Structure formats: C-alpha cells, structure tokens
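Hi,

Apologies if this is the wrong queue. I'm a grad student, and the batch job for Retrotransposon gag domain-containing protein from Tanacetum coccineum produced an output file that my downstream script rejects. I'm not sure whether the problem is my script or the file. Here is the sequence I used:
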Amino acid sequence: MVTKLRNDISNFRQLPDESLFEAWERYKLSIERCPNHNMFPVTQTYTFYNGLTLRHRDTINAAAGGTFMKRRPKECYDLIENMSDHHNDWDTLAHRGESSSSITSSSSEIATLTH
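Support response: The file is valid. Your script probably expects a header line. Output copied below for reference.
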C-alpha cells in the first residue's frame, strides 16, 4: 500500500481536463495520505510542476516572470498555492485559448494575480 501511495506522488500526471487547482489539491492529498513518502518539499514541488500539462506549465512560467524552475523552492510552492487560491481566475485565462501565446499575452492580468 505504501509503495502504491509513493508511486502516486512520484509519478504524478495532471489529468487532461483537470484544472490547476484540482491537480494541486489531488497531489497534496496524495502527499497527506503517505506521510512516509521521503520526498523533500522541493522535490514535491518540482514533481508536481513536471507532471502538469504543457498549458499549465506555460501559465506557471508566465506567472513566475520567466522560468519557474529557476526560482527558490519556497517561491515555487507559494506561487502554486497563490495560483490555486485564485483558480477561477486562472481557469478563465487558460480557456481563452489553448496556445501559450494567448496566456502569456495577458501579462497585466497575470501580474495582478501574482501580487
């Protein structure tokens, strides 16, 4: 059972129609269910990011003002939490278009949400 729970965490993948908020909540629940997962918080955050769809990774990179993975681990976690807290706004942005250019062109809206 513990092995399955650890695999759920380390092999996380966002579902095709899952919002960023839903994916983050599901991932955090997996971590809570397996307190002996032996993953550092930084590894957890990067595993989550790498399991996201390209569209949501592009959105997070835009919100980070560049490359998400170059930020400090605490900043990465806080950014995902902030985006999750404002998930209705982010889902609206993401549904404007499937391409990353439509999302990144909304820089003023992204800046508003990240502050």
